[in-house]
Design brief:
By secondary structure, the protein is an alpha+beta fold. About 25% of the residues lie in helices and about 40% in strands. It has one domain: STM4215-like. A 5-stranded mixed sheet has the order 1-2-3-5-4. α2 packs antiparallel against α3. It is elongated, with a radius of gyration of 15 Å. About 30% of the residues are buried. InterPro entries: Gp17-like (IPR021508), Viral_Tail_Comp_sf (IPR053745). This is Gene transfer agent protein. Pfam families: Tail_completion_gp17.
Length: about 140
């Protein structure tokens, strides 16, 4: 197993989402690794937690990266958040972004959870993906 591709994968996912025209039409550049302090946009995308498991074999080192991408909305309903979540899913499912280290062999959507946050109008959609990455 190798955790060595984790930084490269996160950077590639971030750049891939920033470059996606459908997602940009919905949130612009409001895609974050860490949500900024101060004034936060009413609708944004945030990279979240990751779990990594070994996936190497006799010919190559590799790992399965299960990671979350969250869509957060201050809107009164789920419609805007779900529209952005669809764009995130479309951008990442099947994507093979170039990495600084390693190669994405497969990326797939696993599940999504849409929920209210607290008692207010905030909504959140957490999308879970899995990337199989070979470390070269």
């Amino acid at each position: 197993m190798s955790y060595g591709t984790s930084v490269a994968l996160q950077a590639a996912i971030y750049q891939h989402l920033l470059a996606d025209p459908a997602l940009a039409a919905l949130v612009g550049a409001d895609i974050y690794d860490a949500v900024p302090s101060g004034l936060v946009p009413s609708l944004y995308v945030s990279l979240g937690p990751e779990t990594v498991m070994p996936a190497g074999d006799k010919t190559a080192e590799g790992a399965r990266h299960r990671f979350t991408v969250s869509v957060v909305s201050d809107g009164g309903g789920f419609l805007d958040a779900k529209a952005v979540a669809v764009a995130v899913s479309d951008a990442l499912h099947g994507a093979k972004p170039a990495l600084q280290r390693g190669t994405v062999v497969q990326m797939r959507f696993l599940k999504a959870t849409a929920k209210r946050v607290g008692a207010g109008a905030k909504r959140r959609v957490d999308l879970r993906f899995e990337a199989l990455v070979e470390d070269d």
